[in-house]
Each structure stands twice: as C-alpha cells, then as structure tokens.
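hey so u asked for the seq, here:
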Amino acid sequence: MRVLVTGGSGFVGQRLCQKLIEQGHEVQVVSRHPHQVRDRLPSGCDIRDSAQAFIESPPDALINLAGESIAGKRWSDEQKAKLINSRVASTEQLVALCEQLKANGQPLPKVMVSGSAMGYYGDQGKRVVTEETIPNDEFAHRLCKQWEAAAQPIEAMGVRLAILRTGLVLDAGGGSLQKMLPPFKLGLGGRFGSGEQFMPWIHRDDLVAAILFLINHDTLSGPFNGSAPHPVTNATFTKTLAKHLNRPAIFPVPAFVLKAGLGEMSRLLLTGADMRPVRLEAAGFTFQYPTLDKALEAIL
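ran it, structure tokens below
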C-alpha cells in the first residue's frame, strides 16, 4: 500500500513511518523542509514539500498528523491563529489533492486517518468522556473542531474518514514526558493545581497501532478516542511517574502560578477529561499498554 503522511517527522510520525516501512508499505511524507527531516525518517521514505507533489503517484491511504505544537508558546491571538492554521492548512492540502485526483480521473485514496486531540472535549471535570460526549466550548475545542471540519469534505468524494482524538503521547525521547522528566529526576516534581484533573494518555506504540488499525479496517469511520483505557488524574500520574523514578513528588505547582506564567494555556495543565477509547475497543483494538504502570515500566 502507498501511504501519504503529513507530520511524518514528528514524534508520532517518525515511529509510524518506521512501522509502515517495516510492514512493506511505500511511504510518502509531506514536509516543508524535505532535506532537513531526511535524517529523522527511515530510508525509503519519499519526502516532498507538498501533497500535490505526489499527484503522479496517488496514495492509497492518507494519515494527517501535521500541526504546530499546542504547548510550544503562550497563547497570544497570533499564536492561536497559527495553531489553527497549521492544522487546517495541512488538512485542506490533502483534500485538495483528492479533488485534483478526482478531476484527473485518477484513483482516490481509500481512507484518511486525520488527527485531532482530547482538547476537542474541553474541560469535562470528573465525568466519563466517550466519543458521544458534548464538548465544553473553549479554545482547545474550537481548535480541534476546525481541524476536524477541514477533513470532512473528503467523505463526499467517497474517501473513508476516521478522526483520532489523541491523549498525551508517552514514550522516551520526546512527547509529553520530555519536559516532565528533568524535574522529576531531580526530585522536584509534583502535581499541577489540585491534581484532580484527568490526564488521558497513550503509549506512542499503541497510538501508531491504532492508526494502522483504522487504516486496515474498512468499516471504521468517524471519531475515535486515541487514549489508553485507564486514564488517571494528574495527582496519580505524578505519583506513578515519581515511583518509577524512585523519587519523591512533593513540590506541587499552585494553579495561580501556572495561570500567571502561562495565561490561558495553563488550561492544558489544570483541566482535563476522563476520556475512554470506547469505539476503538468496541471495534476489537487491543492496547499493549493499557495501564500507566505498564507504559512507564516499558519507557523508563
């Protein structure tokens, strides 16, 4: 199968491309800087600067992971626009590729797995969150809603669309743990605010496996929660991480400090959702790392 990936040089994309190559697929990667990312990707990946550059070799499947880091910078109005535009533009590029293929009478991809995030639901307090949960209207929700909406036109062309709303991605060498590990290794870690907010999480290998599962099961479409079946509160997460590092976790960060330092972006740390992968599990997907203990044991 020929698979086109946006965001292929990112933390999840690198592992995904590696797995696709191992399985014998032909991998196409869209990157604004092909020469800069070549070293991060397996040999054999065809890297070009736009989706339209692959018009002569149409993909069988699309995987859309591109987007500016949501926690990279404080959320000014300019940064909010950049966060939205980076996701919407990459998605629209894939839709435009399909429109061009259709106009040329070329075969269309059979499926598109398009990224979204737990932020779609906004702050949900302690209620259990499934794919049917009504979202709380805030910036993270509006960001994900526009991202998902940008992919919808592909369905009218007959391309199966699966949306994957991911939790915090855990693994060595990047992702959510990269910034958390240094203070915890020094014994300076602790909960954020009350610690009662939920942190949906997923091991990177399970997320990659879920993406491949959605590609290969041609009856699956619509939104799927991409998180492990046992989410934990921030307090439990910090205790569990500290336990695996044999360090204390006795330095909580008060909510007012996070709000002062990060502004609206502090909501990423102080709010959450008890998000469950109901539709993935109902479809028969099995998690290799269903609990945080098992995931951290493998990572650390």
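The longest helix spans residues 77-104. The two ends are 34 Å apart (CA to CA).
lmk if thats what u needed
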